[in-house]
Structure formats: C-alpha cells, structure tokens
Predict the structure of Carboxypeptidase G2.
Amino acid sequence: MTESNQALLDAHAWIAKQQTSVSDRLQRWCEQNSGSYHPQSLKTMAEVLVDDLSSWGLPVERVKLPNWEELDDVGQLVSHSTGPGLLWHHLPQADHRVLLLIHYDTVYSPDPPPAIRRVGERLVAPGAADAKGGIAVLHLALAALQRFEVAPNLGWSVVLNPDEEIGSPASRDWFASLADGYDFGMVFEPALPGGAWVADRKGSGNWSFLVQGRSAHAGRNPEQGRNAIVQAAALVQALDALNDRAHGRTVNVGRIQGGGPLNRVPDVAVVRVNVRITESDDEARIESRFRELASNFSGDGFRCSLFGSLHAPVKHADKYALLLRQRMQAAAEKVSRPVQWQDTGGACDGSKLAAFGLPNVDTLGPTGDHLHSPAEYCQLDSIVPAAQTIVQALHDFAAEPLRWPTRAMREQR
C-alpha cells in the first residue's frame, strides 16, 4: 500500500469518528442568527466561523463586499450592507486548484428564532441544511485533508459568502474575479431529500414593477386620480399570461404592495415577480417582454418602471461538467455512497460559477429537507459520508497529471 493510500484510509477512519463533535458544532452555528438582511448578525456569524475554521492553520481574508440596492414596499430604492466574504487559500500557486464555496446566510429573522431540537439523527434548526450543514461538511473534509496530508500538493480555496439567499447581489462580481484560477468548483448546498445530487438547474430571476399613478381624494375628486393598484392588477394579468410551462418557463407573481387610507386613490403599487426558465435564450426574451410591459403600462398619468434581473443563469451540463459528475460519482462509490442525479428548478451560486466558466457540482452538503421553514432539518448521519466523498475526490484529482481542460482554456484567453 502506498503512503498516499494509507493517508486516505486514515482520513476516512478519522472522519467516521467525528459525527458527535461535528453535530454539536453545527447546532452551535445554527443558534447564531445569520439572516441575509441582518448585517450585524452576519458579521457575528463570520467571526464564529473564522474562529472555528482556524484549525486549517491558514490566514483568512475578510473581503468587504459592496452595498446592494433593492426596491422597498413604497417604491424607494434602499441601500443594504452585508457581512464580509471569507476567503482562505491553500497553495495558491499549485498546478491543481479547486474552489470550495458555500454561503453562511440564512432566510431567517433573528426574532423570534425557530425552535432548535434533535429528533433522532435529525437536527431541526434554522439553516441546519441550507447551508450551515454544508459548512460542516466542508470543514470536516478539509480538516482531514490537512491532518493526514492526503493531497499535500493540491491547491484549494474556500469562499463563504453572506448573501446567497437573496441572489448574491454583493458577491456576484467577487465570484467572477475568482473563477478563472481554478480547475473546478465544489459547492456545498444540501443534497436533495433522498440524497440525490442536482444535475441541471433552471435559471431564476426576481423583478419588481413600480407602478406610479396620481393620488386624489376618493370622495371629492376621484376622477383626477390615477389608481396604481388597478393598473397593477391589469399588469399582473399580463404577467401571468407569460407563463409557458410547455417550455419550462414560470412567471410567478409573488407579492403586491400598495395603497393606504381607503379614502385616497392610491398612487403607488409594487408588483414582485419570480421567473424560472429552462432555456438560456429565454433570458433575453423575458427581459425584453418585461420592458415592453413597463412601457405599455406607462402613459395616461401612469409611470411603470422595471427593476431586477436574472440572478442565477440556466445551468446545463456541457461535456466538462459531465466529466466532473462522473469523477464525483466515482469518488462517492469508492466510499460506498450511492449517488443519483436529479434536475431541479431551484437556483444556487453554482449556476453563477458555471456561467463564469467554472464547472462544478453544487449539492455536496448533507441531506436535508423543509428548507426555509421552521421544520428545516439536517440529516446528521449524512455529514460523515459527504465529507469522505470530498476527501476521496480531492485525493483522486490531486493524482491526475493534467489540469482540468476548462482551466487550460480559460488561461489561454
């Protein structure tokens, strides 16, 4: 047996003994709020992670991310700050390099916090699966890699971002600046409830239509008003007509806000829409159609403005992504972990990395379910095999003689 193979076996055996400590650490992370809209909570969570991940023995870079803007419920653009991006590098000059990425924000408000409890091998807690459980898998795998020198010449970087749950508006450009330097990516979103990994993903985007009319008294001079809610209602019907499920396009009007005192003609309404598409060409079509609708619903005392974009592109596998899937599946099988692949309509940051030219598998975290709800859970006994799969895959990749083909192509640009 070679020294490398013995180190790999020792790493797998060590990981298998860590479930209790990893589960306790994950519960502690879930007890700390890190909601996307709560920058102070995000900063506190970031420092907890910096302290706990110090076992890697690597310096951390706290990346200041830009503010981002969002249309509020009364039609005003509001600037939001966020927590830091966290970045660790190991052997940044190595021939073989892998980018490992996951977010540390959650959808949950700090008050009141959802109840945290353990039910058998499940941890029911905010962010337990999405995606603090993914950080637990990543941490455990890299701790074993370092401890046993499984792939000592492999370069890797860890990226933790604070805004994935809202589409990564502050992190997107940061991802773009990083993608070229790596062979492929590993993203630690939770596996699907049955343990399957995601294959292809739909594209996803959020848009807001701001409808502005003219206020007037509902009794004295209603004819002088322009009712923004009525105009918005007609707009909603036009938006709903854009659904084309035969071609995988859904246009979901998810929220409408507007109005005030009942004796006033409302002059502002905001219509919020989520779009999912399966065809990349549909991005330009839906953007064009939305702009046309904004123009059509302006005039005669109304103004309709459009805000938003497709924040997660369609993710379809090319031949390099398929090759990576095969390698990851082979690694899983070596640790006796059966893997299936399943397409999904959900979006994640893996879609952005793929659009930037970095092939990736993006559901390498633990198994879980009921995401974004008080019943969200992480299957604790899925953390160990997930971490063993990562160690196996990185060991195998480090032994390959050549860089990943897409990295060589990017470096020739």
